[in-house]
Amino acid sequence: MAAERMNPEVSRRHVMRASLTAASALAMSQAGATPARAGTDPGAGAVVAGPGGQFARNVELVGYTDMDHRPAFKMAVRNVRDRWYLYTGHFWDSGWSVVDVTDPRRPEVVAFVPGPKDTWTLQVDLHGDIMVTALEQIFPNFGGDPQAPFEEGIYLWDIKNPVKPRRIGHYTTGGTGTHRNLYPGGRYVHVAAGAKGFRGNIYTIVDIADPARPTEVGRWWVPGQRDGEDGVPEPEPLHTHGFCCANGADVSLHGPPYVVGDLAYLPYGAAGLIVLDISDVTAPAPVGGLNFSPPFHSRFGVHGVLPIPDRKIAFANSEDVSYGKGAAPHASIVDISDPANPWLLSLLPTPEPPPGAPYADFSSRGGWSGPHNINHHQHHPDVQKQGDLLYVAHFNAGLRIYDVSNVRLPREVGYFVPSDPSRRYGPMPEDRLVAQTEDVVVDRRGYIYVSDKNQGVHILRYTGRV
Q1: Which UniProt keywords apply (predicted)?
Q2: pLDDT tops 80 at residue 12
């Protein structure tokens, strides 16, 4: 597929948007005290109220792009020579965008690559000159037609030319496709696969030594996921708000499977955090795990996990899609000094509404609430390495930033709650049209990118003490 370059009219629109963004930032600075700067007490940063319900503390707005009215979902960032590029999947449009973010004050969509019809193209990961994008059946509550033909699996892309991705391979699952996958470079892609004959997503390892002929070499699943197999308890009644596993299973690998050496850490929904030995990629073997459900909610009880082996910890979180009507979500720090016996160290604080907000708590604000994604792409050299700050996309609470230097006592040190969208691009959220911060990526320059279900990408910078 050929990438499409922006025409002059689109470029003029981006200049206008940049001017509007600058005006909005100026209005924010005039509406109240400026955010705390580096070197100040992170607990003393003033809350800055902006237009349309926007709030910030120790975070400043640097730039914004409306993504040519294609809201982004997952993102990956890359530095090529003297340019910086953000690659995104999309919520309501099949395809992928490339955004030039060299000057974060003036981001510019420089390419859009159309995807297959009636297919979700939400997820993206990359390393070197290879990009991996997920293909998945669209769920009905997101506007999908269950009877429509769709593409599934993963596409592999050559991105030597950063603004003209060239498709070079295609892996298929035979089922509903793939959700969130990991490509840390090298020979293998680690996949959350909706494989045929299974309930919920399972773990597959795909060899891309020849990218034109990707080949599955290993797979693992929780006993009972396979059709006709015993092992998994009787499922709960299906939720009408289900998301991220097309057949409604609570025991499902959301992904990405995160690999450190010979160990793979799997965020496996109601089955919790699972650790596998993949020293033999053809025969993954269980090592240990940690259950979170109960007491926390079952569906996506563990949505994401990020191991930090140097600190012998992992960050884990759930994804609550109950509109605040179910059991509590969590964002947790886990001790993995013994991968066979991980245990809970602490829970990150629940976000509180800013002063003057017209809601008592985020669970009653409307839309989905709770943690969703973190700065996950630690395998990529152009992503800021995980240190004492943890960045969390927190649905209707926006971006939350935590000081995790003390793993027993994490604390919130900054946030950015974007203004509510002015236009609905798709059917979600199903209740009120409010901000839904979906993904966060932080580049090694310190710029923070956050996406939303019904608006563009905000580019931010943390201004508190590091």
Answers
A1: Signal
A2: no
